[in-house]
Amino acid sequence: MSIADNEIIELFHLKNKKEEAFRLLMDKYKEKLYWHIRKIVLSHEDSNDILQNTFVKIWQGLKEFRYESGLYTWMYRIATNESINFLNEKKRKVYGNSGEITEALENILESDVYFSGDEIQKELQKAVLKLTDRQRLIFNMKYFDDMPYEDIAAILDVAVGTLKATYHNAVKKIEENMRIIDSQF
């Protein structure tokens, strides 16, 4: 039986129940957050590290949580920001902010022993990697996570109309990339 988010928060604010509440929160959301992070950074090891950092920030911020958004939306935003910060830091340190990060992510995808998809799924992931960071993030959240535009807007602090346009453009780019790949075979 799943416990409601507001019950977890109430439990968190009770004396001697913080750890129990946090454990419930982790049990409820760690897999969803892991896969969200994994779609952004691709590496299993990096995803686990970022997930840990995400839960540390959630733990630190939970006492100040004010229900201005849904708990999951708030946690998703933290995971998204942690993932983007990780990639930006990696770009800056390793690639000097060049476009080589896309090639590196493709290499991670190719060599990932945890990737369980078929060849078409791998090509889709490569096409997704060719999107801008913003398009890729929005595409992943809408297409793979099936999130409503309103939730994505709350997480990214962007207007719904902008999201729809960005998603539409991302889909067109992916379709074009998949047509190119299909014509090569």
How would you summarize the topology of this molecule?
Elements: H1 5-12, H2 18-41, H3 44-62, H4 71-95, H5 100-111, H6 119-129, H7 133-144, H8 149-156, H9 160-184
Helix pairs in contact: 1-2, 2-3, 2-4, 3-4, 4-8, 5-6, 6-9, 7-9
Question: Could you explain the architecture of this structure?
Answer:
The chain is mostly helical and 185 residues long. It is 78% helix and 0% strand. α2 (18-41) packs across α4 (71-95), α5 runs antiparallel to α6 and α7 (133-144) crosses α9 (160-184). The mean pLDDT is 84.
Name the features.
9 helices; 78% helix; 185 residues; globular
How many angstroms separate the termini?
Answer: 48 Å
Q: Residue-averaged pLDDT, rounded?
A: 84
Could you give the order of the helices and strands?
HHHHHHHHH
pLDDT < 50 runs, ≥5 residues: none
Kindly provide the radius of gyration, computed on alpha-carbon positions and rounded to a whole number of angstroms.
18 Å
Q: Assembly type of the shown chains?
A: single chain
| Approximate helicity band | over 70%
Derived from helix and strand composition plus strand pairing, the structural class reads mainly alpha
Number of helices: 9
Shape: globular
Largest sheet: none
Number of E strands: 0
User: In what range is the share of β-strand residues?
Assistant: under 5%
